[in-house]
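Module 6 notes. Inverse folding takes a fixed backbone as the condition and produces residue identities as the prediction. Think of it as a translation problem where the source language is geometry and the target language is the twenty amino acids. Below is one complete input and output pair. Work through it position by position during the lab.
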């Protein structure tokens, strides 16, 4: 299994391997999309903060790549911005987007491409995706949850050499997968030897009921501990259901570097609309 990513935190302000490059910056996406200039400025500023090592890629829709390039030209970043392209225009828009990025390599580098799967995760579609995306770029595919063949789609994605993607929340109850669904997804990803990415819904470190919305959010720390238990043969379901922050924190803190790398080979990263929230939670729990 290989994530293709360097999970060691950059620079002198390193973070533990369990948390290195964990949080991708989804400021351009709901629930609170930010204007491109503000999103870019905030992301670049995060690279100089004490916990910069937690921050992963900047997520940009293919439809807004031109806007991103225009913004970066105003003040070229050094090093170039590491980007994950979200294929909101379908597979057909990827070749031009990747070509545009390559033409502007002093401004940005595409490290990852994320694509919603076709309804049945068709094998021909997966081959086409592979042909469109360079070998050194991670391909992430989100199978559609909610039908009987969902896990078979996850398996097909993994066996095609792509990372499966798990949507953990949204604006409605049905957008949140059950504990059983998350456990099945995570366990399958581990068993087939493929890293996965999560997105949406992981707004809290620990599983939390949000009284304002009536929604129960899966916890980031729960997901990390669940991945650790998948590797060690422990109870994945119990880790995902837990609301005991002290127990989860202690279990995560007890992982040595080798164990932490093994966990992150399973749960590679996740997208968050804010970088401040995850960092604040991890600091509060003593993990940063």
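Target side of the pair, the amino acids:
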């Amino acid at each position: 299994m290989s994530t293709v990513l360097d999970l060691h935190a950059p620079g002198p302000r390193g973070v533990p391997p369990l948390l290195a490059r964990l949080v991708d910056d989804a400021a351009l996406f709901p629930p609170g999309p930010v204007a491109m200039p503000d999103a870019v400025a905030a992301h670049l500023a995060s690279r100089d903060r004490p916990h910069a090592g937690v921050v992963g890629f900047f997520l940009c829709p293919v439809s807004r790549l031109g806007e991103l390039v225009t913004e970066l030209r105003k003040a070229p970043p050094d090093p170039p911005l590491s980007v994950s392209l979200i294929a909101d225009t379908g597979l057909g828009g990827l070749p031009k987007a990747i070509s545009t990025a390559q033409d502007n390599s002093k401004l940005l580098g595409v490290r990852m491409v994320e694509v919603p799967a076709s309804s049945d995760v068709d094998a021909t579609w997966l081959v086409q995706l592979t042909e469109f995306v360079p070998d050194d770029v991670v391909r992430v595919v989100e199978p559609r949850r909610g039908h009987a063949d969902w896990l078979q789609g996850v398996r097909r994605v993994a066996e095609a050499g792509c990372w499966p993607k798990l949507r953990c929340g949204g604006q409605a109850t049905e957008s949140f997968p059950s504990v059983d669904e998350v456990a099945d997804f995570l366990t399958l990803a581990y068993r087939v030897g493929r890293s996965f990415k999560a997105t949406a819904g992981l707004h809290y470190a620990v599983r939390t009921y949000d009284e304002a919305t009536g929604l129960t959010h899966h916890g980031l720390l729960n997901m990390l501990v669940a991945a650790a238990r998948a590797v060690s043969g422990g109870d994945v379901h119990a880790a995902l259901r837990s609301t005991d922050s002290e127990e989860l924190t202690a279990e995560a803190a007890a992982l040595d570097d080798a164990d932490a790398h093994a966990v992150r080979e399973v749960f590679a990263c996740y997208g968050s609309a804010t970088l401040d929230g995850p960092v604040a939670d991890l600091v509060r729990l003593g993990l940063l």
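Reference fact for the lab report: The mean pLDDT is 91.
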